[in-house]
Each structure stands twice: as C-alpha cells, then as structure tokens.
Design brief:
Blueprint (H helix, E strand, L loop, with lengths): L1 H9 L3 H23 L2 H4 L8 H53 L1 H14 L7 H15 L17 H13 L5 H5 L1 H6 L6 H17 L4 H8 L5 H19 L21 H12 L22 H6 L1 H9 L3 H8 L5 H19 L3 H10 L5 H16 L3 H7 L4 H15 L5 H8 L4 H20 L2
Helix pairs in contact: 2-4, 4-5, 4-6, 5-6, 6-7, 7-10, 10-11, 10-12, 11-12, 11-13, 15-16, 16-17, 17-18, 17-19, 18-19, 19-20, 19-21, 21-23, 22-23
C-alpha cells in the first residue's frame, strides 16, 4: 500500500519508480551478504560490534535515495509547473485587460480564447478574466450599458456579469421599478432567452456588490423581478457573488469610489420585503459551521443559497469532492441537498476543464442519489463555457448508464435557452433514442419555464 501511494504521488512510470525504490535495496543487500560470506568472516575472525548496525544503516540510507529522488523530482516539476502557470496567467491577464481598455470587450475575449487554445491550463481562469474584461469595458465607456451587447456568452458569460457588477457598484440610486424591468429594457428579450437569463444572473452579482456583499438586501431586490425564472437567476448571482467574496475571491468593484447612495424602493410592500431580508441577516460563512449562512436566509432564497453552499463547505473545511457531498447532506430538505450537489457538479465540471472522463468519474463515485444532480451540474458547466452543443454531447457520451439520463436531460434544458423548441429538439435527435428522449424532455422543461414565466 505504501509503495502504491508513493507511485501515485510521484506520478511516474510504475516500472521506473519500482526500480528506483527496490534497486538500491538489492544493491546494498547484495553487498552486505557478500561481505558476510567473505573468507575473512568465514575463517572465524572477530567481527566488529558496529558491523551489523552499519550494514543496516547503509541499507536504510541507500534505500531512501530512490524514493527521495523521485519525490524531489516530482516536487521540482510541480514547482516549475506552478511558476510557469502563474507567469502565463499574469501575462494573459495583462494582455487581455490592456486589450479591453483599448479595443473593447469583443477583441479582449477573442484574445483570451486564443490564449486558452494555446495554453489549456489557463481555462480555469477564463471566467474570472472575462469578468474583469466586463468591468473594465464598462468603465472605459463612462458606464454606458451599450457595452453589454459587445460581450459574448463564452467563458460562462463572465463579461456580461462583469459589466453589470461594475455598473451597479458605481450607480448611486436605482428604484425597484427600474430593477424589475432592468434586463427586459437592456436586452429587449421578453422570451427569456440566454442573454436575458445571463443578464438576470449578472444583475444578482451587481446587486450583491452594490450592497457590500450582504445577501439579505441584495436577494430582496431580486424579488421584484417580473418572473420567477428571472428572480431565481438573480438570487443565484447574489449568492455566488457573496460566497466567492467571503472565500477571498475577486468579484469586487474594479477600482473607483463606492457609490454615495443606496438603492431606493418606491413601494411600501417592496420596502417591507427588504426589511424582512435585512432581519434574516447577511453574515458570511462561519468556519466552525460552513452550512450556517443558509440558516439565516429567507425561505424564498434557500434554493439559491444551497446552490453555492458546496464551495463554502469544501473550501472552509478543505474537503474532497466526496466529503463535500456529505456536507451537502446537512441541508434541511432533499430539494436543497440536490441543489447543493448540483452546484458541486457544476464546480467539478468547471475545474475539470477538458478532462471530462475524470469529471464523469467524480460524479459516478458519489452515492446513487448524488450522481444525477452532480452530472447535471457538470454538463451545465460544459455548455456554459461556450453556449454550444457539440462539446456537451461529447461529454454526455462518456456518462455511465446510471448518469446518462441526468446528463442528457440537463443538456436539453440548457439548449432550450439557446434555440427554439423545434431547433433544440432536432439537436437532441442526434443521440440514441433513450438519450434523445431525455434531452427533448429537458428542452420542453426550459421552454415551459421561459414562456410561462415560472
């Protein structure tokens, strides 16, 4: 077992690793046996009392050379790789953000895409850099929201979110009536397609930053949006922003002075809703109880809170994915448990990058009831990177029999925000019959939500 652990830790060819460990032992042992059987010893001459300890010490010391060399080599490689990635991230960040300042968000995102294609290890930083691109771009225009239309959906729509985040950070006053129609006025999309969806999510980021990362009042303002789907996306943006900020992330305003005023409510009912949200509290997560913050949330906001609670549980307690899954079990209902595991799956999909097989295996290792929401979150992360279907279908093709229905259903659900029902269903039909059926069911669900407002 110890040898297996060593081989896994150093990540070298097992044959060479085995030789490096066993070779020195064999060499020293052979030398010791040769000495013991030498003529001088066989003649019965007195042996030094230090002979045996010296031989044992030699065996131990030389035997340690193999593992020590392997570990040193692996550590050196890891350090060099880490330094190289850090340097590449820094260089890419400077280039992308400089381009955003001079040429706007479309050119900056194009450059970011090219850099990630050449250096796939940068993919994990794509969403953050797209956020920064949006922040800087709206600043450069004097907070003209026209720049929103210049952002693409790639990198999980980070540019769109960054624009709104920075815009609300700078805006002194906005009424609840303006918040209610904000994304409809900005996108003109009454059918709640993908840009309206991402606008609502970005609005949540903006409200959270606007309220100094206090989730109570920020989520309270999401409640004035026109449809439940918009309200849910907005709350998701709030809780994602608060969680990332509480854990040391960088979704703050991109420089400048904070706004002078606060959002203003125009109706007494809205004001009462916000007062209730304030009473519910707005503390960040507690290291002693990572699930504590969701206990402070209004009932209408609990789903969104648990959707991002996985990152709090995992980071504060330094847990593995499987251990984080068990942390999600502390939610107060099966619905919230599933939402937490879905969020976990989305993070697995994001961090897994192009290693889809490892992502699928992570979800497969969870208990039976945890696999489907995990794979659903993972495929959503794959779709959201570019908002296209090609990679997502290839991802779901790797899913085991226990996971494939959940994967194809969520894939169809996400495609339903990109296309008409007929177009999305046609895309689903490229798959085998049972998988296509699950995909089309997901399409129907998203279209039902879009056109019923639920």
């Amino acid at each position: 077992m110890a040898l297996a652990y060593l081989l896994r830790a150093v990540s070298l060819d097992p044959v060479w690793a085995l030789l490096a460990v066993v070779g020195p032992i064999l060499i020293v042992s052979f030398g010791a046996l040769t000495s013991i059987r030498s003529p001088s010893w066989a003649s019965g001459e007195a042996r030094s009392p230090w002979t045996a300890p010296l031989l044992i010490g030699a065996v131990v010391m030389v035997s340690a050379l193999g593992p020590a060399t392997l570990v040193q080599r692996r550590t050196t490689d890891q350090i060099e790789s880490f330094v190289a990635i850090r340097s590449s991230v820094q260089e890419t960040s400077e280039l992308v953000l400089s381009t955003a300042r001079t040429d706007g968000p479309a050119a900056a995102l194009s450059l970011l895409r090219q850099r990630i294609e050449r250096h796939p290890e940068l993919a994990l930083h794509g969403h953050h850099l797209a956020h920064e691109t949006g922040r800087i771009s709206v600043e450069q225009t004097g907070f003209d929201l026209g720049v929103f239309d210049q952002c693409t959906l790639e990198f999980a729509s980070g540019c769109l979110h960054g624009v709104l985040e920075r815009y609300f950070y700078s805006k002194p006053d906005i009424s609840s009536d303006e918040v209610a129609r904000f994304c409809l006025d900005l996108t003109g999309d009454a059918d709640l397609g993908v840009r309206a969806l991402e606008c609502s999510h970005g609005l949540g980021h903006g409200l959270a930053v606007r309220w100094d990362h206090s989730f109570g009042p920020a989520a309270g303002y999401c409640d004035v949006l026109l449809t439940e789907m918009e309200r849910r996306e907005c709350r998701d943006g709030v809780f994602m922003e608060v969680a990332v900020h509480a854990l040391g992330g960088g979704h703050q305003g991109a420089g400048g002075d904070p706004p002078a005023g606060r959002l203003t409510a125009s109706e007494e009912t809205t004001e009462a809703s916000h007062s209730h949200a304030m009473e519910m509290g707005s503390r960040g997560p507690e290291p002693s109880d990572p699930t504590q913050s969701c206990s402070l949330v209004a009932d209408a906001h609990l789903l969104s809170c648990w959707a991002y609670q996985h990152m709090v549980i995992r980071v504060l307690s330094n847990l593995s994915w499987e251990e984080t899954y068990w942390g999600c079990q502390n939610a107060s209902s099966p619905e919230f448990v599933a939402e937490c595991v879905f969020g976990l799956g989305k993070q697995v999909g994001t961090e897994g990058g192009s290693d889809w097989r490892a992502v699928v295996q992570t979800c497969d290792r969870l208990p039976r009831e945890g696999g489907p929401p995990c794979i659903a979150g993972a495929v959503e992360a794959v779709v959201d990177q570019s908002w296209s279907s090609e990679e997502a279908f290839a991802f779901c093709a790797l899913a085991s029999a226990a996971l494939e229905e959940g994967c194809y259903h969520r894939l169809g659900f996400r495609l339903g925000f990109l296309h008409s029902e007929a177009q999305a269903s046609t895309l689903c039909d490229r798959s085998e019959t049972q998988r296509a059926r699950a995909c089309r069911a997901g399409v129907r669900q998203s279209h039902s939500m879009r056109f019923s407002g639920t």
